[in-house]
Specification:
By secondary structure, the chain is mostly beta strands. It has two domains: 88 residues, Beta Barrel (Elongation Factor Tu (Ef-tu), domain 3), CATH 2.40.30; 62 residues, PRC-barrel domain (SH3 type barrels), CATH 2.30.30.240. It contains three helices and 13 strands. A seven-stranded antiparallel beta sheet has the order 4-3-7-1-2-6-5. It has a six-stranded mixed beta sheet with strand order 11-10-9-8-13-12. It is elongated and about 60 Å long. The protein starts with a helix and ends in a 6-residue tail after the last strand.
C-alpha cells in the first residue's frame, strides 16, 4: 500500500521560477528559471502563476542573455505581461520527471518525520534551503533545528515508504 503522505506530496505544486519582467510589446515575459538547465522550465505544464494561481501554458520560449523570454498563451500585450511581473511559477509535482537514485525533490522531503540513528524523533521536515556550502533541512519539532543535507555523513536514510528521514545528528544541537 502506498504511503498517504507520499500520495499527498505528489499532488503538491512546486515552484520552478518567477516572472521577472516584460519583454517587448506583444506579451512576452522574462522568466527566472530555477530548473537545470534553465530551459527545462518550458517542459513542465501547465504553469500556475501568482498567489491566487492563474493557469497559463507556455507557447514558446528562448534564451535571452543569461535567462529566458517566454510567450504565454492568452497574454497578448505588454499590459497583460506587466500584471504577471513578480509572480511565482509553479507546476504540479507530477509534471516533473522522476528523481534519479539518491536524488530528491525538496517538496518530496517536506513533511517526512526526522529521526536520529538512535531512533529519537526530532520533528518533521518543514522546508529546505540552499547555502553556499550545502543544502539545509529545517526540522520543526519541540524546537527548530537546521541540519545540513550532507549525504552519508549526516543524512543516513530517506525512506518514503515509512515517511521518514534518518539523520546522524546530536539531538542537543
Amino acid at each position: 500500500m502506498a504511503d498517504p503522505l507520499h500520495r499527498t506530496t505528489q499532488r503538491r505544486m512546486v515552484a520552478v521560477g518567477r516572472i521577472g519582467g516584460v519583454y517587448g510589446l506583444r506579451g512576452w515575459v522574462h522568466v527566472q528559471s530555477e530548473t537545470q538547465p534553465i530551459e527545462n522550465i518550458l517542459r513542465y505544464r501547465p504553469w500556475h502563476l501568482g498567489e491566487r494561481p492563474q493557469r497559463f501554458e507556455p507557447v514558446e520560449g528562448k534564451r535571452h542573455g543569461k535567462g529566458l523570454v517566454v510567450r504565454l498563451e492568452g497574454c497578448i500585450d505588454r499590459d497583460q505581461a506587466a500584471s504577471l511581473v513578480g509572480a511565482e511559477i509553479a507546476v504540479p509535482r507530477e509534471a516533473l520527471p522522476p528523481a534519479k537514485a539518491d536524488e530528491f525533490y525538496w517538496v518530496d522531503l517536506e513533511g517526512l518525520a526526522v529521526e536520529t540513528t538512535q531512533g529519537l524523533s526530532l520533528g518533521r521536515v518543514d522546508h529546505l534551503f540552499a547555502t553556499g556550502a550545502n543544502d539545509v533541512v529545517c526540522v520543526k519539532g519541540e524546537r527548530e533545528r537546521l541540519i545540513p543535507f550532507v549525504w552519508d555523513t549526516v543524512i543516513r536514510e530517506v525512506d518514503f515508504d515509512l515517511g521518514r528521514l534518518v539523520v546522524d545528528w546530536d539531538p542537543e544541537f
